[in-house]
Amino acid sequence: MSGLPFITTKVGRAALINAAHNGTAPLTVTHVGLTAAVFTPDDDSTDLPGEFKRLDTISGEVVAAGTIHVTIRDDSADVYHVRGIGYWLSNGVLLGVYSQPEPILQKSAQSMLLLSADTVFTTLDVTALTFGNANFTNPPATIQRQGVVALASADDTVTGTDATRAVTPAGLTPALTQAVDLHKEEVDPHAGYLTQERGNKLYFHKLEAVTNSDTDCDLLIASGVRDVSVTNDRGILAHTHLPTDGDGYGSLTTFNGGQFIHQCYSNGGTVQRSWSRTGYTGDSPTFNDRPWKLAWDGITFNPDDKQDALGFTPVQQGTGVDQLLNTVKIGWNNKVLKATVDKTDLGSFVFLTTLNAALSGKISGNHNIRLQWQGRDGQPTWVYGGYADPNDGALYNPANFSVHYASNAGNANTLSGIRARYVENPGIKPYYLWGMAAGSPAEMTLFHLSQIPAVHSSGLHEFGSIDPGRTGGTADLPSPFVLVGLRSNVSGNFRVHLRGVTMGLG
Questions:
Q1: What is the pTM of this model?
Q2: How many alpha carbons lie under 13 Å from residue 412 in its C-beta half-sphere?
Q3: Which of 90, 315, 443, 449 is most deeply buried (CB count within 10 A of its CB)?
Q4: How many Å apart are CA 311 and CA 314, to the nearest integer?
Q5: In Å, how far are 28, 29, 365 from 115, measured between CA atoms?
Q6: Residue 225 and residue 286 in one domain
Q7: pLDDT at 150 over 50
Q8: Contact between 392 and 386 (Cβ < 8 Å)
Q9: Are residues 97 and 49 in the same domain?
Q10: Order of all β-strands in the sheet with 58-64
Q11: Does residue 443 form part of some domain?
């Protein structure tokens, strides 16, 4: 709250006039009175209407002509609200009063009243006023609490030794300028930066000459990476068999807060070999007792030299002629040996012994048989051979070769509309071609010559003649005669005579 217009009482103004009546007398404001009453202040007041509490915890100072800054504090558990304030001088005189209809503030039992306000006296010179308790109005500012601080000058800021004054932007500028100028003048202005040179100096250095590198393990853990000179670290030679004609290089890296350690060494020279060991510091055996492992390289490992130790020759997968790089897997399923390419199941292997057992009794003599599967219309699926090779043979359903072959649709062999078929052993010769004897006019029966008796001729007869010079005429042979020849007659008119006979079985 600021700018409360206080009314100076007549008795208060009279108390401030000095004995010579030529100025104000030095007086002290020692108390502040509080009231909840609503009233109209005037300069005739000698007391504060409805005053319920008077506090001596008041502090203030003159901040401008006619204005004092006042701070009031109440640490009690009292509960109240304030609408009016009165200042009491050390001689018990009411200096001035202020009031308003609305509460200036309210206090609860758990709160502390702390009121700071500028009080304006329009008709009074307040430069002679002092306050009885001035130690809490403007406490010194610290990093823990708010308060009043003095401002540092530019020189104070550049010097940088005063810890109680506050720096202003105007004072900070010359201080920064001076700091930058001094920084530029330094030979190494970034001494705290970890450059490559500083890193090497900090983390790479010769080990002290020791009989065994394990004795220096704690130093390695603490410092990180070190150079290992074979001339002064015979323990490394004993463990790693480094050649004596070159220096080796070692590193030790820790993880998990130093609990896990990885240590490795490599010899110098043209052919570099590496040794390493790892472990946890709390494991048994301890890290110092863990063996060194030599890494494989072209010198320490040659696959051709190690082949005999395997006891077998491995099969290389893929990379052969017309072979892809697919993953091929072979395995046993307790019944058969199976093969898989990537995720495609190729089925099981068939071995010669199994195949021979399965084919026993199915091979005729010593002839090779090549078979394939095909289906025949109107019949179940049968096996037959190929057609390209003359040695191939076909197997047909026996039903295709039955005596009813000619009656099956599409299977009859016909000659000029007459169907015929083979019949075994007619009784005269082993096999002959016979026709069907069902009496159908479309059927023909064939007999062997030995079954046909002598043919008897009815004799030669002539029936009619045709004169070439005539324009019309007909000559027919009556049944059952058949034409056997022609005869010409040149006597008189030229004629052609028909000659026929009849034939029958004897």
A1: 0.31
A2: 16
A3: 443
A4: 10
A5: 19, 16, 128
A6: yes
A7: yes
A8: yes
A9: yes
A10: 4-5, 113-120, 67-74, 58-64
A11: yes
